[in-house]
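dumping this here so i dont lose it again. seq + smiles for flavin-adenine dinucleotide
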Amino acid sequence: MGFENKRVAIIGGGLGGMSFLNAALYAGLKNVQLYEQAPQFGEVGAGVNITSNANRVLDAFGLKKSMTEKSSHQLPCYMEYHNYKSGDYLGHIEEFSHPPARLLHRAHLLDSLKERVPQSSLNQGKRLVSIDRNTAAGIAPYTLHFEDGSTAETDIVIGCDGIKSNVRKDMGLADSPNYSGQVVYRGFVEYKDLPEDTAQLLRKTVNFRGPKRHVLILPIGNKETQTDRAAIIGFMSEPLEAWDSESWMSRSDIDSLQEHVRDWCPQVQDIIAGLRKGSPDGKMLKQALYVRDPLDKWFEMKDGQKDAGIILLGDSAHSTLPHQGQGTCMAIESGIALATILRHWKGEDLSEAFQFYQDLRKPRTDRVTQTSYEAGKLASSDSPDQLTERFNPEALGERMKWIMEYNVLEDLKEKGAEVLDFHGSKL
Ligand SMILES: Cc1cc2nc3c(=O)[nH]c(=O)nc-3n(C[C@H](O)[C@H](O)[C@H](O)COP(=O)(O)OP(=O)(O)OC[C@H]3O[C@@H](n4cnc5c(N)ncnc54)[C@H](O)[C@@H]3O)c2cc1C
């Protein structure tokens, strides 16, 4: 039973696709190929926060040691808040759960996710352009067409190709992502490029909270492996008309970020100076923040066939604003859920398995999308009185507890008890 021998094609080798591939290997799916459009696997130059709920899954894959070598160690709290102008401490949120959040460079997380994956399942330079739904007997349900003219045949397609997903388009979903009203400026500061006091402060996860803007610092990596740096994410409200690049990702003068924070506290000025020291061309990454509305149905089935279909995973299905640090974490949770369900499904009807997966995941990812939007308003201050008097980090922490304390492995065991055959499972 289950679909363990079916040909599974993952489209996209970002953090979502790579997590699904790890999950597929862990669950025991036998015939999985990943297709990534870029000639080499890589990630945008920025930090990422992987929280308890996702670390539980990565630890099950055996990646704890590898991740620990590359990420922050023993941070004193989950997040500390400071007033944007005075620099005053406003309060903090305690770490939620065990294992604690791990902060690391995105490329280092990708390296960990690649460690256990056989080279033979990775295909680079394969940009998916279309999917044929074949009707003739005796051939595969789907033929994938890539930009380089090559093709591949498969039974199941997992669209992990991000918020602008081609797979999603190919499924006839014509909606567009929505601009959030914010852009993010992203860069790194070496601790040696900061005054000692500021360097000390930024070895914690710190949010300088300003009106409709905030500057978040993720202390990624660790001293032992010389991977430690302060990853800077400046969330700034800007009208889309000011965006002059066709892509959502571009490079911007550090001056533009400085313009936003000109009257902010000395520590933020130290950050700007540190960014300049680390950037010979005076530029940093700038990205327009988009999110999609939750989607009603994440999959389609092949006409007349019970065991072939296409499904979305990660940002292609459930994108979210990053204000609770959950986009990648949700993809990691979804990956283990989908792989386990495909491998251990008791029946033969793939649409039932897909539906079970969606019912398990969608209430949670929809809620994360909604609460991340709200958390963004609190992470900055959208009303002036929220800057100090009414701002309560503890309440903010309470709002996020349900995310971090969740254990998808337990949930799968519990909710899947009737429909999954856990024989041979590592769960
Ligand atoms: C500022 C910011 C901060 C964030 N911080 C966090 C955080 O701290 N923690 C967290 O959990 N999340 C965070 N996120 C969210 C996280 O970045 C995303 O949710 C996550 O990267 C989504 O992964 P994905 O693999 O679904 O999509 P993507 O990362 O977009 O990857 C898609 C992959 O598919 C490939 N691809 C695209 N089209 C094709 C095609 N046609 N054919 C083949 N390949 C294709 C792409 O090249 C890419 O490799 C943050 C996001 C932002 C913007």
